[in-house]
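tool=predict chain=A
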Amino acid sequence: MSFKWLENTISSIDKFTDTTGKLIAWLTFAMVVVSFAIVVLRYVFNLGWVAMQESVLYFHGIVFMLGAAYTLKVDGHVRVDIFYQRFSKKQQAMVNLFGALFLLLPVCITIFIISFDYVAVSWEIMEKSSEAGGLPLVFINKSLILLFVISLLLQGVAEIGRNLLIITSYNFAKTDLEGGI
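tool=predict ok
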């Protein structure tokens, strides 16, 4: 039985997630540089801007919300693996599959449903910072919630597909199942 279509889907999602992860890594560097600049400006030159301080919060939001899918791809989430580490690859794939189907997907869908109106209202009023001199982009920052869900759902689909292929003992032609595509 050919699963070439599934292999291609997993590969496409993984490439998207890898690209996003690399961009986020650079944003992390930018966040460190801006944080350093804030400290130097405040304590050396006695200068400060609310917008600059808020930008670090926006960077944090981007890094954590959009970095979740990449973390899932590289299996970097915290796991209590007392039993999991002793399982065979197929048993691990079963745990991962059920976790994705019964935990990841329902939680992501719930977050999307609960957050949609929250984000939509923010866009309707073009929500701005409540601080004088703050960034006028709160509505964009809140949109990260929906982007978080979409990117995590996409990577969740790739992980479900990857685990199904492991369970059915399908071998990728040019890829390593544990390392992604």
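The CA atoms of residues 120 and 146 lie 10 Å apart. The two ends are 20 Å apart (CA to CA).
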